[in-house]
Automatic annotation (TrEMBL):
Residues in the signal sequence: 1-18
Database matches in InterPro entries: Cupin_8, EF-hand-dom_pair, EF_Hand_1_Ca_BS, JmjC_dom
The entry's keywords: Calcium, Signal
Occurrences of domain JmjC (ranges): 125-291
Name used for this protein in its record: JmjC domain-containing protein
PANTHER family recorded: HYPOXIA-INDUCIBLE FACTOR 1 ALPHA INHIBITOR-RELATED, JMJC DOMAIN-CONTAINING PROTEIN
Organism name: Ciona savignyi (Pacific transparent sea squirt)
Length: 479
């Protein structure tokens, strides 16, 4: 039968093709699968667009843009040497990660795990796997420049969500991921290679969602060895291969996927995250006038930022857009006749007496919704109205965020407790106590740091738990 023969031939052909055809760039590093083809517009200081044009042609279109030399005149660009930062900002703290290619473990800083002082970081980052990925302390805002296309006037300048610093000693390499917000990423030191994949190709990115409801996410594709048998559609994505030099800024639209490689022995970027500005009926530019200076950089300290950080204590990295919180709260408040403090507590599952709340918020003692409610309830009648929510300031919302947001260990000092299992510390202690009749504090700290890669600070905490502030324990006394 002719028909059957044809089918068999076709099948055979398909099979043999499948065997012989290794896709171009299979198991090669990212970038070898197809040549880059998407051109990204570039501006100089002289021809950069006004906020209105920038919003219309780039932000609202989800289209990236490069601003060459945009922050060359900023104070940070001119002054931020290692020495200057150590002298000026040394006491401030930042969050640190391990570089991905070095295994990505959380390194210990001067005092805490996952947290370092600028002083200690400056002295060690050239020779460690520490990568500062952190909110930028507010004290440093005055040195940072905001480019006129975003900051001269208009709505974007009033919607800064978070300011981050990315700093490493070279070699930092990311996975392919997307962020929740629009960002202007300016490079103060070093060079960065960016590979950008527009959001519209997400269907071919092989996405791993970070959280169920989250807007973040990353690709399952291994950037060192792209498996085109498993992820065959990945090679279909047109992409951009761009180099950002020091002094340049990149506008990266919300949700665009990107992979970044940091070059140079000092690689420091500051990223200004601003609202997504989805579904905006009209771009508010009512403060743009003939007097607006469309050429000058402005210091970041002249802007309000939704989440700021003091350089100590609990960090607010990764929180949401305050204006979205406002909308959500208005919606909930309007559904109820009398919205009281306990409704606010319930809304966030923050019942201090409930065991499940305690599991969800291990830091529940830090939280107090009554306090938040008191601040929002301006006429102190015990009932929150939608007008009161509309009138609430960002400062009010900062308090709200601090007390309500999901617990994020990497924002806190107790990070180390969540990383080093109790059993490990307990086992180590048991072994240490077996060795001799006496265990000194000094010896305990040494073995704790060695075996857990933790910090002396926590080693001492554990020891304090045994003997208060004593210098040694007599083993027979504590068994
Ligand atoms: C991407 O750009 C970098 C820097 O110019 C270059 O070294 C690299 O070969 C480019 N990659 C591709 C695939 O074009
Ligand atoms: C970094 O380590 C290398 C050897 O591993 C050493 O030669 C160099 O001096 C160190 N640099 C700094 C800044 O400590
Ligand atoms: C919570 O805040 C309220 C109002 O500021 C205060 O009266 C109360 O003592 C606080 N409760 C706790 C447990 O800290």
């Amino acid at each position: 039968n002719n028909m059957a023969c044809l089918w068999i031939c076709a099948l055979l052909l398909h099979f043999c093709n499948g065997l012989s055809e290794v896709p171009v760039g299979h198991l090669k590093p990212l970038g070898f699968q197809r040549p880059p083809s998407v051109i990204i517009d570039e501006f100089t200081v002289d021809n950069a667009p006004s906020p209105v044009d920038f919003y219309r042609n780039y932000v609202s279109q989800g289209k990236a843009a490069i601003f060459r030399g945009a922050i060359l005149q900023s104070k940070a660009f001119k002054t931020w040497s290692d020495e200057y930062i150590r002298e000026t900002f040394g006491e401030l703290e930042a969050r640190i990660e391990g570089k991905k290619e070095k295994g990505g473990g959380i390194p210990a800083g001067e005092t805490y795990m996952g947290r370092d002082t600028f002083r200690h970081f400056v002295d060690t980052y050239h020779n460690s796997s520490s990568y500062m990925v952190s909110e930028l302390p507010e004290q440093m805002y005055k040195d940072v420049g905001v480019i006129p296309s975003v900051g001269a006037c208009g709505l974007m300048a009033k919607r800064f969500v978070e300011i981050d610093i990315w700093w490493n000693g070279g070699g930092g390499k990311s996975i392919i991921h997307k962020d929740a917000f629009n960002q202007i990423n300016c490079l103060y030191r070093g060079t960065k290679q960016w590979k950008i994949f527009e959001y519209k190709y997400e269907k071919w990115i092989y996405q791993q969602k970070e959280r169920e409801e989250g807007v973040g996410g990353f690709s399952k594709v291994n950037v060192d060895s792209v498996d085109l048998i498993r992820y065959k559609d990945f090679a279909k994505i047109p992409w951009s291969n761009i180099t950002i030099f020091e002094g340049d800024c990149l506008y990266l639209p919300k949700s665009d996927y990107h992979q970044v490689f940091s070059e140079g022995t000092n690689n420091l970027a500051v990223s200004i995250l601003f609202s997504r500005l989805d579904d905006l009926a009209e771009f508010d530019a009512s403060d743009c006038t003939d007097d607006t200076d469309y050429k000058a950089l402005k210091p970041l300290s002249e802007f309000d930022v939704m989440w700021k950080w003091s350089g100590k204590g609990y960090m607010s990295m990764g929180r949401g857009d305050v204006e979205n919180y406002r909308e959500e709260l208005i919606e909930v408040v309007e559904q109820m006749e009398h919205f009281t403090a306990s409704d606010l507590e319930q809304m966030h599952g923050l019942d201090m007496t409930d065991q499940r709340s305690k599991e969800k918020f291990p830091d529940i003692e830090r939280r107090n919704m009554t306090k938040v409610f008191t601040v929002f309830d301006k006429n102190s009648d015990g009932i929150l109205t939608s007008d009161e929510v509309r009138a609430a300031t960002w400062e009010d919302f900062r308090l709200y965020g601090l007390h309500s947001e999901e617990y994020e260990p990497s924002n806190s000092y107790i990070f180390e407790y969540s990383l080093i299992p109790y059993e490990m510390v307990h086992g180590l202690l048991k072994r240490a106590l077996k060795i001799g009749p006496i265990l000194t504090r000094k010896h305990w700290v040494k073995i704790y740091v060695k075996y857990t890669q933790g910090t002396p600070y926590y080693a001492n905490n554990v020891f304090n738990g045994l003997v208060g502030d004593g210098d040694q324990v007599v083993v027979k006394d504590i068994t």
